[in-house]
Amino acid sequence: MKSLSAVSTLLLVPLALSATPAEAAPFTDPAAIDAAVAQFTGVPQGATGGAAQPVDRRLRLATCRNPLSIGWYGQRRDTVLVQCPDVGSWRLFVPLLQTVGAASTPAVLRGESVTVAVSGPGFSISQPGEALDGGAVGTWIRVRSAVAGSQPMRARIVRPGLVEVQLEGD
């Protein structure tokens, strides 16, 4: 009788161990997606130019083995595409909060001269630049400094003729 009990215990232990991983399927944390979108746009959720609302917490998205891929979706830059680059995985479209009438009222036009203000903890620098995209107040566009050979950067439109890049301190 003892040997039958030992055999049944040996059979049940592997079954119990194999059932645990299947029940605890790993999922991507929606809060991590929210944080990635906020970092990409440079604007917190709920603010103009940031995510309009948090990612739905009911979503059960497979965990990515690779870093998330994040980029603009569409010409108006009012939606962010977040996707898991793993084969056969998922993608999300995150709408951004826009000001009322922003799409019809551009504050900066492509090719227009702008002031590029770069600021961080304890400093602020302004220099002339050129808008490589157009957009409304609060939207993010590409700009290039007037310095010869400068690389394009992303900046948020503050008002007509002024864009800003905010650097975070350590």
Describe this structure in words.
Residues 1-24 form the signal peptide. Residues 104-165 form the Flagella basal body P-ring formation protein FlgA SAF domain. This is Flagella basal body P-ring formation protein FlgA. The protein has 170 residues and is an alpha+beta fold. The chain folds into 2 domains: 30-95, no CATH class; 113-166, SH3 type barrels (Roll). Helix content is 20%, strand content 29%. It contains 2 helices and 8 strands. The longest helix has 22 residues, at 2-23. The radius of gyration is 24 Å and the shape is elongated. The model is unreliable at 1-25 (pLDDT under 50).
Summarize the structure.
The chain has helices at residues 2-23, 30-41, and strands at residues 69-72, 79-83, 91-95, 113-120, 123-131, 140-145, 153-159, 162-166. By secondary structure, the chain is α+β, with helices and mostly antiparallel strands.
